[in-house]
Amino acid sequence: MSNNGGSAIGRARRSIRSEATSAQIAERKQACVHALLNRPWILKEDDQELYFSIKDHYEELRDWFMDQAGFPLLMTRSLAKLERTPVVAHPWMGFEEFREIRDYVFFTYALWFLEGKTEMDQFLLSDVVEEVREQLAAVGLEADWRHYHHRLSMARALKKLSSLGVLIAVDGDEGDWAQSESRNVLYECSPHSRYVLRRFPQDLTTYSRMEELSEPILYANTPDGDNIRRRHRVYRRFLLEPVVLDRHWDAESLPYVLTQRRSIMDHLQRMLGLEGRRYREGLLFFYPEPTSEAVLFPTLSGVSDLVLLIAGELRRQLGLEGSGRYAEADGSIRLERSELEGILLRLQERHQDYWSKEFRTSSSAQLAELVFAHMEQWRLGEWEDAGHFLISPVVSRWNGMYDMADV
């Protein structure tokens, strides 16, 4: 009897160990997925543990990303990179350090310069800017390094390449060159430059329309090819955009979202830990726990607090008879610019003791611009025209207020 009991206890312990191991494996895979979706790439020299974790699960991750979203997963001896191609390109998907279109032009041409270099090659910043200037002039574009703002744009482009690990500054700093053209920087080339730009499924000269560049792979012109393309477009948007409402889908994609929502929710829960809910306005996803990889709403920025306070104020107005505030059929609320400024002015008067100096001293018009930009970035609202802003029904899921006991 004791032997049987001992065997049962042993089996129970092995089962507990097995379950714990399975849970840990699932957690590690989710960490890999989050990193691949939120970082430009994972370098072995910077994060060996994560790099080898991706390598351990490479085949499963590669197959899942390709099957569901059409995202190729690259794995080399030094890096892991997910080639992420958005269906809809939004401004916040760019480099936040860049200020001008010119920054991206110089960034691209600096990569062109690096194509002729091999690993560990050394060269001067003056070599880069001179060849880039000549190449731009050949296509009718101008780069005048005597112009401070042109130097500043190139400095931002080179700093971004340095932060990505593509350029290694051996001696000097781009900021000094931006201040004075007489300064210089000695660089060394890393092996990662050839992986910065995404790889296209066919030669660029074969494309005739910009829209064609948004497809990550080639799709067969068959019903099966159309089905795969539709699935990829749906998953790509859910993986890369914070909110996608029913009205944001085209006529081809919406039926797929409605009929396959259970499968979509299961996939994203298993691979990312996302919780999905179907609301009248659309299929929404959220993280039940904070993650160190993704930036989540509400952010740490004070403007997120303003959005939450506005959400609470709008909820209260909708509950008051005679307030004149009403919601559209899908829960959206249409506001004029002046109406939001009025709400912010009242909130400022009521809560200024708890606001930062910047928000206390800003005008209601300045605060409104910050809120509009923040809500657009998070797909929580959009301009219909110059005077009307449509606030997403997603905002109604929150109700912000100050806890007076904690302030």
Automatic annotation (TrEMBL):
Q: Look up the domain of life of the source.
A: Bacteria
InterPro entries recorded:
CHP02678
What NCBIfam families does its record include? TIGR02678 family protein
Q: What is this protein called?
A: TIGR02678 family protein
Q: Which organism is it from?
A: Paenibacillus oceani
